[in-house]
Amino acid sequence: MDLKKIVRPCILERKEYVPGKPVEEVTREYGITDIIKLASNENPLGSSPKAIEAMLREVKETTHLYPESLAPSVTEKLAKKFNLPADHFYIDNGEDGVITMLGMTFINPGEECVISELTFPAYENIVGKMDGKSVIVPMAPGYKQDIDAMLAKVTPKTKVLFLCNPNNPTGTLIGKADFEKILKTVGENTLIVSDEAYYEFVEDPDYPQSVNYLKDHPNLIILRTFSKIMGLASVRIGYLIAHPDIVKAMLKTREPFPVNRPAQAGALAAMDDHEFVEKVVRVNSEGRKQIAAALADMGFEVIAGHGNFVFADLKKPVAQVYEELLKVGVIIRPLNSQGAPNCIRVTIGTKEQNDRFIRSFKEAYNKVYS
Ligand SMILES: Cc1ncc(COP(=O)(O)O)c(C=O)c1O
Question: What is the 3-state secondary structure (H, E, C) of 54-80?
Fold first, then answer.
């Protein structure tokens, strides 16, 4: 069998996606069980208790039944929450699922998509899978998406401009003025995708409330997820908010049952769990300051950022420090696979987890570099 003749060339040339190292893998490789994972921006407080209750009930009673295809109860609830008609929402198997379906719906082979350097890898990934062409734009100083440079690359040939706000992994924000400039500049046949996976964590008043711009910009697509703030990463449910014509096109692409029943029940219940959300935001905000201050004290270039993680440039390769941390059961995200071999991203944990990370990180760094 000649794989070169069987596999699509655009797939052959791709590398596999490397996710944050799972806890189970560290246990297998290092024989330890006392592990903290601060590598995938998961919720250190677990899941919304209301969601857990609803999901357990759902698993017990309806696991033998297919889910409702369009997750109508979640759609209705989102529509009320954002004060928009229900036809503005599309729900899928995590935001990852939404991004995949976006690609399948809109990106033709050879079409250009403009993407920042050092951002969420799923954009370049789906463009590649669709045999499109990623136009990667270097970042501005301070690890910000360089909006002017990105706009300069948008031409009538551009199908999608991908924005990550706040940006994963650097945590930096696109403020209102830049966001408005983007909307004004980009032509209506180029889609503007604003990935707002960390939207609920942002406390800066300069963060654009993108939903308010939908009315005048039918090419704007907003992505959100229940994985982060609600702690539902395992059941996989994310959504987009956009013009109904965008949603209609997506509905033709999607799989028959993309969102399982526990995910639908969990998301529905989580939207009423304001107490949990408030606690998550508070713990995150305190932890972000704690970790950012500790890393800055060590002399690194640190961006506390606006998400549930902190970014740091150590100005020295991180690979060995990462390995030393694994040995003591602390998993963080080295950014070598994203072309930033001197940089790390650390998810904010509980106070105890943050203390342990800071202690272990100092030891690991000193072991490697002193
Ligand atoms: C910016 C960004 N978008 C999307 C996702 C994927 O979210 P989901 O778990 O809903 O697939 C993540 C997950 O880390 C993310 O950081």
Answer: HHHHHHHHHCCCCCCCCCHHHHHHHHH
264 and 281 fall within a common domain: no
Q: How many domains does the chain have?
A: 2
Q: Tell me: do 133 and 212 sit in the same domain.
A: yes
Q: Which residues line ligand 1 (CB under 6 A)?
A: 41, 94-96, 120, 164, 168, 195, 197, 225, 227, 233, 238
126 HSE (CA, 13 A, CB side): 23
17 CA to centre of ligand 1 in angstroms: 13
Structure confidence by residue, pLDDT tens digits, 246-261: 999 999 999 999 999 9
Single out the residue in 270, 296, 312 at which a domain terminates.
270
| Short-list 121, 112, 111, 171, CA closest to 145 | 171
Give Cβ neighbours of residue 17 (< 8 Å, ≥ 6 apart): 121, 125
Count of Cβ atoms closer than 10 Å to residue 346 Cβ: 29
Residue 205: other Cβ atoms inside 10 A:
7
Residues 197 and 320 in one domain: no
Instruction: Express each pLDDT in 237-292 by its tens digit.
Output: 999 999 999 999 999 999 999 999 999 999 999 999 999 999 999 999 999 999 99
Distance from the alpha carbon of residue 9 to the mean position of ligand 1, in angstroms: 27
Report pTM.
0.97
- Looking at 228, 245, 270, the residue that finishes a domain is 270
**C-alpha–C-alpha distance, residues 133 and 138, integer Å:** 16
Mean residue pLDDT across the chain: 97
249 and 107 in one domain? yes
> Does 304 lie in the same domain as 262?
no
Instruction: State the Cα–Cα distance between residues 89 and 95, nearest whole angstrom.
Output: 13
| Range(s) of the domain holding residue 173 | 49-270
Cα–Cα distance measured from residue 364 to residue 330, given in angstroms and rounded to the nearest whole number: 10
Please write the tens of the pLDDT for every residue from 83-141: 999 999 999 999 999 999 999 999 999 999 999 999 999 999 999 999 999 999 999 99
